[in-house]
Input
Amino acid sequence: MTGDPMPRRLALISVHTSPLAQPGTGDAGGMNVYVWQTATRLARRGIEVEIFTRATRSSDEPLVAAAPGVTVCNVVAGPFDGLDKRDLPGQLCAFTAGVLRAEAAQARGYYDLIHSHYWLSGQVGWLARDRWSVPLVHTAHTLAAVKNASLADGDTAEPVGRVIGEQQVVAEADRLIANTATEAAELTGLYAADPAKVDIVTPGADLDCYSPGDRAAARARLGLSQDETIVTFVGRIQPLKAPDVLMAAIAPLIRADAGGALRLLVVGGPSGTGLERPEALIELAAQLGISDRVTFVPPQPPAELVQVYRASDLVAVPSHSESFGLVAVEAQACGVPVLAADVGGLSVAVADGVSGELVAGHDIGRWTERLASLVADPQRRRRYGAAAVAHAQRFSWEHTVDQLLESYGRAIGDFPTPAAQALPPASALSRRRRRWIKNRSKVAG
Output
């Protein structure tokens, strides 16, 4: 840790999904895990954390004491039902008003720093930063330009409005958090972020929860056979996560498996564009003739998800885009090897040839070959699994929080005092004007 100043109270903004929601369905996923795990650990370090999120049920209490030092503020912005992430830009004004009113009820200087998660939150944080005169730290989690460059067949591209919104937040945030060096390069290369204000903060896994355990006991708990080889997918059911690629790739292996010893386990629920056809993956299993060898399980809380990992012989992460890949780290922490697409942060989350393997692209035949090789080689899986536990130890949420606090300290230390903000020097005004013209030209182009 450095000698930089530390925040006393943090406003954490997560507009489109609550950290209290169950990951794996709807819009809840790895970001929920990230927000919750970092918030609770920041609170243990003595920082008060208030998380602003959109209320999605009339029964949501305005304030929820979610954990010691962590309060979730449910802001009413638009109808409780019928809105998904794509509808929320139209509710940002209402949401921002709720956030500003919450701060206005407190003494001046109530918050020391804002940390926004995802571009919608960044738009809110940008305005709050200017109103409260505190620094804004922003984590994108995913970037539209990156997702659109690796779009799954038939998936819907992210709208240009999101790209513009992300560009604005990148330009305005005082510090930007990237999960990996790859994401940092995407921020600077695709969004013209200032490299000097980008901090690389690697996500982690709850190593107290996710650890090796008794495979037989885990399978008995889940009602799975002790004699099968189980390949598992964990995540939201949507084209971006590519569960269809995995299913199509494993289908010929299942059909050739006369003894019935191979099973695909799919854990998660429909999300994003997957909500348009929530039964699509079940229908695909039927079309491929493997329905009897595929088990669908709804999203699981951590205490149950660890049993899913422990019951598995191999976890597959075939995503078209991943800023990091928390599932890959959680599985490895349980001693399970991972077969993952070589995209985004998965090349960091998985040690290729050590704790698992990376697959270039999403060609079905290539995935079938790699699956067949691993399924047929239990000794290699055991070797990868043993190394996976050690590899996962590099990624802990405590280490993530250490890095976040360093970024927060830099943001606070570099932020101008109120007096300097009131009358910036002419050179600063000139730089600000040039930046505004530059960003406006990029958006117009």
